[in-house]
Amino acid sequence: MSNKEPRPYEGNAERVTVTGWKCMHCRAFYGNVDGSKHRASWCCCTDRPCEIEGCDGRASKGYVACQDCQAKEHRRREEAVPVGAWDTDEIFVNGDLYYQLCDYLGDCEELPTAESLSLDCSIPMRVLAPKIDLEDFILSDAPEGCELSDDVAQAEADINAIIERVSPNWWEGSNARPSPDALRPYIEAERKSRGYDD
Ligand SMILES: [Zn+2]
Ligand SMILES: [Zn+2]
């Protein structure tokens, strides 16, 4: 259909006055279709209303919540982390492994409360030594149909026991935090060594 009616060049343009949305700051024009107003508003803005219900704060561009609401959400997530058993001096604080909790506390300018420290900590979990799959190791380049001796399973268990024994220990943070009660004695000891009054 479009090929049937001729459309001469001379009659194919008409002057119009364009209405639409532009950025007040850089004056970029965003047209007049769905989303034009949003894109013009977004263009050079620096902040917008916090989207958390009941909050009248401002969220920085690129965030849905203001800083207060972000901090509350962060705390809520930390509080949701379960409290676990913990029986060493090693501890993760804010993602860093401290081998001695008392050393960490000794470096704190201002001592945390047991409750706030508990929220910032995670209980270390030993990273397991790697294991060898002996069948895969031996047969990876072997021709199809090769069979292994029955001794391989025992050999694999022995090798993995050796790897486990000689591997260095290291830890990563677990999905649990120490209870405030477990931390309190360390904080008390540090308070005493500083000569703070109770
Ligand atoms: Zn702009
Ligand atoms: Zn907010």
Layout of helices and strands:
Elements (H helix, E strand, L loop, with lengths): L35 H8 L3 E3 L8 E3 L6 H14 L10 E3 L2 E3 L2 H7 L6 H7 E2 L1 E3 L7 H6 L12 H15 L4 E3 L6 H14 L5
Antiparallel strand pairs: 1-2, 3-4, 3-5, 6-7
Helix pairs in contact: 3-7, 4-7
Bound molecules: zinc ion (ZN) (2 copies).
The site of one zinc ion (ZN) has 8 residues, from helix 2.
User: SSE string, helix = H, strand = E?
Assistant: HEEHEEHHEEHHEH
End-to-end CA span: 91 Å
Give the proportion of residues in helices. Answer: 25-40%
- Total E-strand runs: 7
User: What value does the average pLDDT take?
Assistant: 91
Describe the fold and architecture.
- Among the domains are: 18-46, no CATH class; 50-80, no CATH class.
- It contains seven helices and seven strands.
- It has helices at 36-43, 67-80, 101-107, 114-120, 134-139, 152-166, 180-193, and strands spanning 47-49, 58-60, 91-93, 96-98, 121-122, 124-126, 171-173.
- It has a three-stranded antiparallel β-sheet with strand order 4-3-5. Strands 1-2 form a two-stranded antiparallel sheet. Strands 6-7 form a two-stranded antiparallel ribbon.
- Bound molecules: zinc ion (2 copies).
- Residues 23, 25-26, 28, 43-44 line the site of one zinc ion.
